[in-house]
Amino acid sequence: MRLVIRQDYDAVSEHMAAYIRDRINEFNPTPEKPFVLGLPTGSSPVGVYKNLVKYYQNGELSFKNVVTFNMDEDHPESYHSFMWHHLFKHVDILPQNVHILNGNAENLDDECKKFEEKMKAFGGVELFLGGIGPDGHIAFNEPGSSLSSRTRVKTLAYDTILANSRFFDNDISKVPRMALTVGVGTVMDAREVAIIITGAHKAPALAKCIEEGVNHMWTVSAIQLHPKALIVCDEDATLELHVKTVKYFKSIEHVVNDLIGAENVGLQGNVLY
Amino acid sequence: MPFPISFNSMHDERHENTSRLIKIINGRLIRDHKIVEDDVLYIYDGKILDSQNYFFSANGDVPDEIIDAKGLLISPGFIDVQINGAFGSDFSDWQGEENMRCNVDNVAKGLLKYGCTSFVPTIISSKSEIYQKVLPVLKTRKGNKTNGAEVLGVHLEGPFIQSSQHGAHEVSHVRTAPNGFSDFVETYGLREGNDHNIRLITVAPEVEGVLDSLKDLIRIGVTVSIGHSSATVAQAEEAVEKGAKSITHLFNAMQQFHHRDPGIIGMLGTTRIPRPYYGIICDGIHAHPNSIKIAYDSHPSGAILVTDAMAAMGLPPGDYTFGGIPVRKTADDKVEVIKTGRLAGSVITMDSCVRNFKKFTGCSIIEAIEAATLHPAELLGIQHIKGTLHAGADADLVFLNEDLRIVRCFIAGEEIEI
């Protein structure tokens, strides 16, 4: 696992967006071999999307051959609306390449099963971008979720309902109690998992997820078992980490940039010579 | 009295389906009383689409064309509810059917370069026989690249007006309605069972028979405006209570403001009933800029910019005829009746009205534009298809720079040359 520490939310957003841009461009997607990207909603990815839109407008990035799968959905209108306003309406993505779980589907189990099948049909997810909740949940895989779970209907934790109330006039009673979500296992099946963690309120979650063992009470900790995991966090999110942990990951970046030379290291950390 | 006719909102053939999906990016949209910086417009088949729903729908597709608005303001097309003519054409001057058709084409096409994408051709007080000839020709007609601006129906300004406030109208045509609504039916040549195309009518409430006719006029789908009138404020209020929705060219051809009885102008201060809209000619000649500021300050959401333009609009200075009356256009864009020296309508364009209104009143860009788009659409009850950038509206668009100069214009989704 790689941990990249940046000063603040903006710097984190820029780093993650540039990384996704470079990954897509290096992949060189075609209609036959599209780049399959998993996407989150929420406040964490807004800055990343803003930068991706900028890259598209500058001609540095195209979404023509990018296929997207959204991680979760608890309120159809708000999730479609979120993705439309922050990303899709600004770029050249094809409508048929966009996949969002439909919480209004008649048979929700069936909807979840089909979602997984579609991912498989596209050859699996190349990169899953994610954020986490203060309790360390990824997508809506709340504490206690099976680490091998698949896409399914999930009851939300009280913390998550509280956090979501800001999208519902701060009225707890309006926030949906259930959601459709990809499972931890679904995320882990992606060939790469990239997580954004910012803010002091998420510092305990970051510490639990990377300094302690794999634990279903902090579901994002499952990425410890993933061969290609990347976390980009800000300084505030490191507050609960050991000084030693922070220094270790910073030193790796130092070694790469100054001793090996960034030009000798691939995007995913592989040494090129 | 039963009179089963109604306003015929559209009986012309539909425009050709262009069937191309257009996406407009980087525009600053005038929508919901705001300038929306971060949205896109999808246009298909002459209409504005709900872009998000379209994208996520089963038939969502990629745009055939992307238009970069480059940060320009995007306004709905302007709507002129009072225009007597332009480019040498005069809607009140009957020279035969073919000639009147040419007048409509001439004006409809010419107005687009001023951002005016819909208009209500206006006929001043005329003999009954003129209405019976002109009305069937001035049909509502869809706006598009071939037709030009949309014809929303006819504005009948008179002849049921106050003879002492006739302005440039020929006083001998002015009349009363002692028999009430049936005088309207007879004068305009309405036929039982036939739809009509009268969108708007200007009447003087104090004229005999007018107040009692309002109910029937409204019933058959006519929007009533009061003007060319010496009405007291009480008479004006009664007209509004009976359904009149607007004042025709506020300040002009009406009793001037007096504090004991402020007349029609006093409707700006009424608290008993919803205040009417008011048309206002923003050329700086028909009303002093300060007067316009006073009207705007007292009732900003009622302002409707009208040109009241006559045949000389878009023509060089010289002598012309307006409803059979010789008039002179001077070098400083004044038009006077030669015989009397009275003002005879204006030669201003809608885009100038918008710029002047902002300059005279100090209002925001949004308010200036809404006075030429949303408010006239609301007056005519067509705010779901005109005067708005909401989904479902006609894709009549004007791209404006910061100085409110027109840069590009689209009608029914097609761009026209400025």
TrEMBL record, chain A:
Residue span, Glucosamine/galactosamine-6-phosphate isomerase domain: 8-224
Keyword terms: Carbohydrate metabolism, Hydrolase
GO biological process, one term: glucosamine catabolic process
Catalyses which reaction(s): alpha-D-glucosamine 6-phosphate + H2O = beta-D-fructose 6-phosphate + NH4(+)
EC number: 3.5.99.6
Alphabetical list of CDD domains matching this protein: GlcN6P_deaminase
Record's function text: Catalyzes the reversible conversion of alpha-D-glucosamine 6-phosphate (GlcN-6P) into beta-D-fructose 6-phosphate (Fru-6P) and ammonium ion, a regulatory reaction step in de novo uridine diphosphate-N-acetyl-alpha-D-glucosamine (UDP-GlcNAc) biosynthesis via hexosamine pathway.
Family: Belongs to the glucosamine/galactosamine-6-phosphate isomerase family.
Protein name in the entry: Glucosamine-6-phosphate isomerase
The organism's taxonomic lineage, starting at the top: Eukaryota, Fungi, Fungi incertae sedis, Mucoromycota, Glomeromycotina
UniProtKB/TrEMBL annotation, chain B:
Superkingdom assignment: Eukaryota
GO biological process, one term: N-acetylglucosamine catabolic process
EC number of the protein: 3.5.1.25
Active site: 308 (proton donor/acceptor)
Entry binding sites for substrate: 168, 252-253, 260, 286, 343-345
UniProt KW keywords: Carbohydrate metabolism, Hydrolase, Metal-binding
Keyword tRNA-binding: no
Stored InterPro entries: Amidohydro-rel, GlcNAc_6-P_deAcase, Metal-dep_hydrolase_composite, Metal_Hydrolase
CDD domains: NagA
Annotated ranges, domain Amidohydrolase-related: 74-414
Gene3D superfamilies in UniProt: Metal-dependent hydrolases, Urease, subunit C, domain 1
Essential cofactor(s): a divalent metal cation
Recorded GO MF terms: metal ion binding; N-acetylglucosamine-6-phosphate deacetylase activity
UniProt enzyme class: hydrolase
Catalytic function, reaction form: N-acetyl-D-glucosamine 6-phosphate + H2O = D-glucosamine 6-phosphate + acetate
Keyword match Transmembrane: no
Cofactor note: Binds 1 divalent metal cation per subunit.
Family: Belongs to the metallo-dependent hydrolases superfamily. NagA family.
PANTHER family: N-ACETYLGLUCOSAMINE-6-PHOSPHATE DEACETYLASE
Record-given protein name: N-acetylglucosamine-6-phosphate deacetylase
Lineage: Eukaryota, Fungi, Fungi incertae sedis, Mucoromycota, Glomeromycotina
